[in-house]
Amino acid sequence: MRRLDQFGLAVKWNPQQEGLDYNLGLAYFKSEAYKEAVLPLEKETVAHPDNLAAKRLLGMSFFMTENYPKASALLSEVVAAKPKDVSLYYPLALSLGKEGKTEAANEIIRRMVAMGGDNPQLHILLGQAYYEQSDTTKALEELRTALSLTAKCAWPTSTRA
Q: What pTM does this model have?
């Protein structure tokens, strides 16, 4: 029996079990069933509004299901509480951009640049931001930079001399 199935049975057995909603949401999230992760994670965040881990997972689940307004609201809250968690800057900036909140997205990108340095993901995000602003020239520049950085980071295909 899969762990996910076990959590489902536990919900039927005792839906008030402490930590069950978080763990069920986590199991769905890890199995990439983001849509299914939403309900138990929402229940967890209502019951425990200080649970940043649940808010992070819920925000990312909203991002993965393209519910950008809810994703940006939750991810903004988590980033405010944990500003060094750079892994959330990309989905937050992209969510804000999808909502048309260009200046807020640009601010997150600036913070990401300041904290994260030069990496391919950053340039992909910048490329998307420029593309959404109809600046295809800058978008292509950023995507070329991302490709160049990816090539530099790639492992050699052969280690034989």
A: 0.74
